[in-house]
Design goal:
- This protein is an alpha/beta fold.
- It has two domains: about 180 residues, Decaprenyl diphosphate synthase-like (Undecaprenyl pyrophosphate synthetase), CATH 3.40.1180.10; about 35 residues, no CATH class.
- It has nine helices and six strands.
- The chain has a six-stranded parallel β-sheet, with helices on both faces.
- Strand 3, helix 6 and strand 4 form a beta-alpha-beta unit.
- The chain starts with a helix and ends in a 9-residue tail after the last helix.
- About 35% of the residues are buried.
- One of its GO terms (molecular function) is magnesium ion binding.
- This is Isoprenyl transferase.
- Its cofactor is Mg(2+).
- Keywords: Magnesium, Metal-binding, Transferase.
Length: about 260
């Protein structure tokens, strides 16, 4: 019962609405869309393929959705690519996942530059393999002056670790006499997070039928609109993104008011 309440109602319809880009652009577009890209492994299992095949297909969808988000005028697209908990997966799968950013950014970087996309990363990149870190740093450097869509990868990211580190830094400021407890505000806490230069997400999309945040942007998602779908990430299309945005446009965001 609660599953149906939380998930988008159009998933339950036998004849879902079809949206066009023109339909969606008639109404305000969410400035910041965050996506928990889930279901690569299940997509591969359904086809009797190795999990790596699902991750590869998922990477192709990242390229497609990034391009379409840019066309729609979305300002920030945050993608949960690898969590701090994902290190618990089998060694061979982790090694493959660590190759994907390098493959993606190497092949897609010229297009990102041409499309004026600005690549950013949140997460502890120091723990990444050198080849992964090198590819990420190259993409960040070569797109740093771009003024279009911000493509923000959460890579080796965990929200609890992010908040914990922010609290440690604030505690040091108090200890050194540069800050008093009375000066701690929500704005101050936000300024110590990895997303300090980004606005909070307006819309969160999670694929594959799971209904949880999985340690993703716990602070930043306080007033974000959520959209869940059973669609596995490798099957996610531009039409699904339009459906999510259409649902967002129908909601009344009160931010605690009436």
């Amino acid at each position: 019962m609660f599953n149906k309440i939380w998930k988008n109602k159009e998933d339950e319809s036998s004849s879902p609405l079809v949206y066009t880009k023109e339909d969606i652009l008639q109404h305000p577009i969410p400035k910041h869309v965050a996506i928990i890209m889930d279901g690569n492994g299940r997509w591969a299992k359904k086809r009797a393929l190795p999990r790596a095949a699902g991750h590869y297909e998922g990477m192709q969808v990242v390229r497609k959705i990034t391009r379409f988000a840019n066309e729609l005028g979305i300002k920030i697209l945050s993608l949960y690519a690898f969590s701090t908990e994902n290190w618990k997966r089998p060694k061979s799968e982790v090694e493959y996942l660590m190759k994907l950013p390098e493959q993606f950014l190497t092949t897609f970087l010229p297009e990102l530059i041409e499309e004026n996309v600005n690549v950013r990363v949140i997460g502890n990149t120091e723990q990444l393999p050198e080849h992964t870190r090198r590819a990420v740093e190259k993409a960040i450097h070569e797109t740093k002056d771009n003024t279009g869509l911000i493509l923000n990868f959460a890579l080796n990211y965990g929200s609890r670790a992010e908040i914990t580190y922010a609290m440690q830094q604030i505690a040091k400021e108090i200890q050194n006499g540069r800050l008093s407890p009375e000066q701690i505000t929500e704005e101050l806490v936000s300024s110590y997070l990895m997303t300090k230069d980004l606005t909070d997400p307006d819309l969160l999309i999670r694929t594959s039928g799971e209904i949880r945040l999985s340690n993703f942007m716990l602070w930043q998602l306080a007033y974000t609109e959520f959209w869940f779908t059973d669609v596995l990430w490798p099957d996610f299309t531009e039409q699904h993104l339009l459906e999510a945005i259409a649902a967002f446009q129908k909601r009344n965001r009160r931010f605690g008011g009436v």
